[in-house]
Amino acid sequence: MGVRRAMDILLDAANEKNVDGKVYTDGPLIHNPQVLEYLEKRGISVVNGQTDLSKSTIVIRAHGITPTRRKEIEDMGAKVCDATCPHVMRVQSIIKKYAAQGYSTIIVGDKGHAEVVGLLGYAEGKGHVVQELDEIEQLPSMDRICVVAQTTQEKRMFNEALERIKKRYANCVSFETICSSTYKRQDEVISLSKSVDAMIVVGGRGSANTTRLVKICESQGTPTLHIETDAELNFDKLKDFDTVGVTAGASTPNWMIKRVVEKVHSYKVGTYGKLLYYLKSIASFFIGSCTYVGFGAASLSFASASLLGVKPRLSFCIIAALFIFSMQVLNHFANKEAVALNEPARARFYERKQSLFVGLGIAGAVISFILGFILSKSIFFCIFLASLFGIFYRLEIIPKSLSSIMRYRSLEQIPGSKEIFYSIAWAVSTVLIPFLGTTKKFIPSLAIAIAFVFSLSFIRAVVLDIRDIQGDRILGKETIPIAIGKEKTKKLLFFITVSIAILLSVSTLLGWTTTLGYYLLPCIAYAGAYQYMFQKRIVSEGLLLETIADFNFILAGIIAFFWQTNIF
User: Fold this and answer.
1) How far, CA to CA in Å, does 412 sit from each of 161, 337, 391, 422, 472?
2) Of 174, 185, 186, 527, which is most buried with the most CB atoms under 10 A?
3) Over 70: is that where the pLDDT of 175 sits?
């Protein structure tokens, strides 16, 4: 919790409009070189001795600092942004309280660790650190003792140290200050280590939390490999093990863990389950290549035409499929860095087939233009304007010289624009094109159909953005979950889900749409169901969530097909 919270505070500070100077961290925010590289690209640096801190913002990392260091930073004219972990703050307050009463402090932790150094600053010069059990006998005589633990300390080590300290010092008060998530993770790692043939621990080598997990795995007699990235995986060391467990330090980013898990999984499955592996590879290709979502667009076009009371045509479905396919594919290349962080497997897939997919994306757009032109000029201009808008979406229209007045220089930089324009693109391609292909004038069903499609695609986009929130924050993207927070986003999605269900029911009852409106209500329920599954972490990672979300579009097409054939 502490590191992720600190990262959020840091990125919020970097995105503040009223920040005049640079944003720094007082020491590395996270023990992970790869993440620090991304922060450097954002212009966020670590303070060094020569740094001019006047008018700058200094973010105190999760480990905390000493009161003396805090005063130094403030005296330099910097604004302090405190991202100290709440668990660490609790330990600081305990030490401060008992030091004021004349107690000496013993911290069971790693000597020289940033958190321990910060805690010692509250002990008023009467602090001692115990890293190894035999150091307890070397401690000086003390009258009154306050014993605490580094928040990432191993629980068994602390308990044993505490037992020995109490035997030596009669007047002793102690506090269980190990972070609950830390010892839960340690217990889970012990349990996992016992059930597998080998363990992989992912995380920075400078992370005390990660190296402690390595020691815990090794203490169970399980062969353990400590790596920072998937590039360090040595499959020669894993070839003799059938079952491999993967865990990670608290500061290890999700995308890094994903990369390791995907690599290990593909290697081990390829070893003993080729048929299953090949079937999964075919499914991954179908979904990862955006063919699946293109089919979803065709299905939704069929459903939209039926809801409008327009006869569905194959040409409408093909245009929708090609337009959405090309939009998705070309967006992946335009957002390479984000895809690499949030969807590492897909990023590698597109990197290997870059020329093929760029060609397919362009071909899809061109063919949709040609089909639109053949059908009618209005459809052609609709597709052309939508594509033109997609191009201008990323262009920085506002000059850099006006950046002090206008924070957002392009449409892409406006918070929440990604999800809104994505949903508009779906509504245009699956609703507006079938409508323009008829001779009908404006009808109420057009507004209802647009609202239905917009809502389904908006819910889908936002749920996936909640999944990718960590990577998007590091890259400085302001999606809706980042702009208003996860909890408010969940409430927004619930409101939209309920609202569209009511709108669809009422509009069908009033005769504004065909009776298909009643039969499309399961699609709204389905959207609510996968939101619930995601929030409860029943489904949360990889292409599976995307597969489930995109099936809603196909479900709409299936329902519309049965409705058209009078099966309902």
Assistant:
1) 55, 15, 11, 11, 13
2) 527
3) yes
Strand partners, 199: 224, 245
pLDDT attached to residue 485: 87
In the block, tokens 């309920």 appear at 498
Consecutive H or E run containing 340: helix 336-342
Active site residues: 115
Q: 275: pLDDT confidence band, cut at 50, 70 and 90?
A: low
Which CATH number characterizes residue 195's domain?
3.40.1010.20
* Residue 277 included in any domain: no
| Edge-first strand listing for the sheet containing 224-227 | 224-227, 198-202, 244-248
Contact at 8 Å (CB) between 92 and 70?
A: no
**DSSP code at position 432:** I
Is 84 in a helix, a strand, or coil? Answer: coil
Spatial separation of the C-alpha atoms in residues 357 and 361, rounded to whole Å: 6
Q: What is the CATH number of the domain that holds 60?
A: 3.40.50.11270
CA distance 32 to 30: 5
Rounded CA gap, 538 and 534, in Å? 6
Question: What distance in Å separates the CA atoms of residue 4 and residue 32, rounded to the nearest whole number?
Answer: 13
Cα-based distances in Å from 230 to 255, 285, 347, 455, 541: 10, 21, 14, 38, 18
Q: Tell me how far apart the terminal alpha carbons of the chain are, to the nearest angstrom.
A: 50
Query: Do 266 and 394 lie in a common domain?
Result: no
Residue 9 CA to residue 488 CA, distance in Å, equals: 18
Q: What is the Rg, in whole angstroms, of the alpha carbon atoms belonging to the chain?
A: 28
Per-residue pLDDT of 399-421, as tens digits, reads 666 666 666 767 777 888 889 99
Alpha-carbon span 507 to 367, nearest angstrom: 35
Local confidence band at 542 (pLDDT 50, 70, 90 cut-offs):
low
Q: Which of 227, 248, 270 delimits the end of a domain? A: 270
> What tokens does 404 get?
């002090």
Where is pLDDT greater, at 105 or 310?
Answer: 105
List, for residues 440-475, the tens digit of each pLDDT value.
666 789 999 999 999 999 999 999 999 888 778 777
Q: Band the pLDDT of 272: cuts 50, 70, 90.
A: very low
Whether residue 396 is predicted with pLDDT greater than 90 in this model: the reply is no
Query: Which residues, 6+ apart, have CB-to-CB distance to 54 below 8 Å?
Result: 21, 76, 77, 78
3-state helix, strand, coil in the chain (%, to 5): 65, 10, 30
Domain interval for residue 94: 88-178
**Quick one: average pLDDT of 337-357?**
77
Could you tell me if residue 18 is inside a domain?
A: yes
CA of residue 129 relative to chain centroid, distance: 37
pLDDT, average across residues 61-71: 92
Strand order across the 79-82 sheet: 45-46, 23-25, 57-60, 79-82
pTM above 0.90, yes or no: no
